[in-house]
What we know:
homodimer, nine-stranded mixed beta sheet, AB_hydrolase_fold (chains A, B), AB hydrolase-1 domain-containing protein (chains A, B), carboxylic ester hydrolase activity (chains A, B)
Amino acid sequence: xxxxxxxxxxxxxxxxxxxxxxxxxxxxxxxxxxxxxxxxxxxxxxxxxxxxxxxxxxxxxxxxxxxxxxxxxxxxxxxxxxxxxxxxxxxxxxxxxxxxxxxxxxxxxxxxxxxxxxxxxxxxxxxxxxxxxxxxxxxxxxxxxxxxxxxxxxxxxxxxxxxxxxxxxxxxxxxxxxxxxxxxxxxxxxxxxxxxxxxxxxxxxxxxxxxxxxxxxxxxxxxxxxxxxxxxxxxxxxxxxxxxxxx
Amino acid sequence: xxxxxxxxxxxxxxxxxxxxxxxxxxxxxxxxxxxxxxxxxxxxxxxxxxxxxxxxxxxxxxxxxxxxxxxxxxxxxxxxxxxxxxxxxxxxxxxxxxxxxxxxxxxxxxxxxxxxxxxxxxxxxxxxxxxxxxxxxxxxxxxxxxxxxxxxxxxxxxxxxxxxxxxxxxxxxxxxxxxxxxxxxxxxxxxxxxxxxxxxxxxxxxxxxxxxxxxxxxxxxxxxxxxxxxxxxxxxxxxxxxxxxxx
Lengths: 247, 247
C-alpha cells in the first residue's frame, strides 16, 4: 500500500493510495478524522457503474461518515472504472448494453453478466483493501460496514457474503437477478434503498432482492423518484444505521 | 371539553378529558411536556382496531413525542372502541369477521366496510378534537401531525384528506382497499410502515396504498415480521420525521 497524497478539509484527512494486487494496481482513497489515532469502524463504499472512487456524492457521504461518526471510510475504483483499464470482455458487454439501450432490448442479462464478471475481481480486491487499511494504526481491526448502490450493490452482495468482517450494510438500487444466491448467505443487519420509479431496476426485482437476504434485521426504504434520485434525508438514516450497528 | 384527571410522569403531563360532540361524549387523553406554555406542534394518534386511546404502545410513543420533541399529543377512543358503545352495524360486521376468521373466509371486504362505517364518524370527531385542543394555551394553533397504523391508518387517511391542518403523517399496516380514493388527495410528507410478513394485510395491498398517495415526499419502510411486530427503531424514525416536518 503506497500513499500518494494527503489533504485535509472539513475536519477530515483524505489520503490517496494505490495497492498492488493480483490484477494490477488498485487506486483508492481513505478518509479518516483529522488527528485520528487508534482503532475505529471502517466503511467500504462501492461506487455505481460508470463512476469512480471520488464521485461527488461518494465524497460527501465519506466526509459526513468520518466527521460526524468518527469512522474510517475507504473507496477504490472498481475493475474497469476510474483510472483502471477495461478488459476486452467488459468492453464487449458495455458496447452491447449501449446498443440495446438504443434499440429498447432487454438490459438485465447484460447487467447480470457485467456484475458477475466484475465481482470475480472486485471481491478478492476489496478483501485485500480491508486487510491493508486495517493494518494502519489510525484504522485498526474494528467492525466493517459496507455501502453500495446500483453496481455497488451488485458487487457488494457477493463481497459481504464472502467477508465475515462486514457487520452491517446499506445496499440498494439493484435487483435480484445479479445476486440472489449470494444474498441468501447474508445475515447482517441491512438497510436497503429502493427508488419507487427506478427506470433501470424493475420494482419487482428490487423487492425480490430484499426478500432474498437472510438477515433477520433488514429494512427496506422506498422513495418516489428515478434511479439516481435518492432523497437527501436517506444519508442521515445511513449515518444513524452505521452508528447503531458499528459505533 | 371537560378535563377529568391530571397526572405527570417522565416529565410529561397527561390529562384525561371528554368532549361532547354530535355522536355523544368522546373520551380522550392529552399529553404535553410538564410546564408547557405557548403554541407547539400537535400529534393526533389513531389506535388500532379493538384497542383504545391508552394502549401501552401508544402511551409509550406519546411520552417520547412529548418529552423528547416538546409536542402535544392527543388520542381519543375511536367510535365503538375503549369506553364507547358499539353500534348495531358495528356489532354485525365484527361478528361476521369472527365467523370468517374461523372459516377462512375473505376478511378484506369486512375490514373495508368497518373502516368506512367508523370513518364517517371519526373524521368529524377528530377535526373537532383538534379544534378543541388547539384552543388550549399550552397547545395553540401549531402544525398538526397524524400517526396511525392498521385501523388507525384506515381512519387516518380520510381524516388527513379532509383536514388541511395536518402537515405530515406516519401511516401503515393497512391496504389500498379501504382508502385508495382518499389517499390520492393526500399531498403531505408521509412515512409509511409495512410489515413484510403481515398476516392481516396482503403485501400487494400495502404497496398499492403507498402508490396511491399523491405526496411527492413519501417513504415506505418495510421490515420483516408479522402485523404487530414493528421494530423499536421505527419509533426513533417517527420522532425524527415529525421533528423534521413540524419542529
